[in-house]
């Protein structure tokens, strides 16, 4: 029974961290956009609750790629988790920057993460009181190269959200 309840809460984007402390994935199934999509690998795979390979989004090769989620409200954000696609034939989580913003137009104002190589799960812990309405993942290829952005899940956690 406990396992079934835990799985159900996980699918809904809710997790209990410590007794009495609940964090909600406020990005779960919220509207997203991304740069040029490859095949059926839509942006919605990036916040569908499935962290496994096979449920990942992918962009076309480009010098600059992005994935963005609109949280549809302003939340206090305590943690962002990014799940790489470990089954990808080539590394596609290179040169990634993570930004947050209160408005779509100012999402580049606050950089909260900078990763050269996403190999598995990357966790970004944010200081108390950090607020955001948008989260954007940007990938910029080194000069003369083209990269694909291919990630499985981006989770954005807010404390005690309902």
Architecture overview:
The protein is mainly beta. The chain has a single domain, classed as Jelly Rolls. The chain is built from one helix and eleven strands, in the order H-E-E-E-E-E-E-E-E-E-E-E. Strands 1, 2, 4, 6, 9 and 11 form a six-stranded antiparallel β-sheet that branches. A five-stranded antiparallel β-sheet has the order 3-5-10-7-8, with no helix packed on it. Strand 1 and strand 2 form a beta hairpin. The longest helix has 10 residues. The two termini are 24 Å apart. The N terminus is likely disordered.
Query: Do you know the CATH topology?
Result: Jelly Rolls
Radius of gyration: 15 Å
Total of DSSP H or I helical runs spanning 4+ residues = 1
SSE pattern:
HEEEEEEEEEEE
Shape label: globular
Briefly characterize the structure.
This protein is mostly beta strands. It contains 1 helix and 11 strands; from the N terminus they run H-E-E-E-E-E-E-E-E-E-E-E.
Features:
162 residues; mainly beta; Jelly Rolls; 6-stranded antiparallel beta sheet; 11 strands; 6% helix; globular; disordered N terminus
Secondary structure blueprint with pairings:
Layout: H1 2-11, E1 14-18, E2 21-25, E3 32-34, E4 57-58, E5 64-76, E6 79-84, E7 94-101, E8 110-117, E9 121-125, E10 131-140, E11 150-159
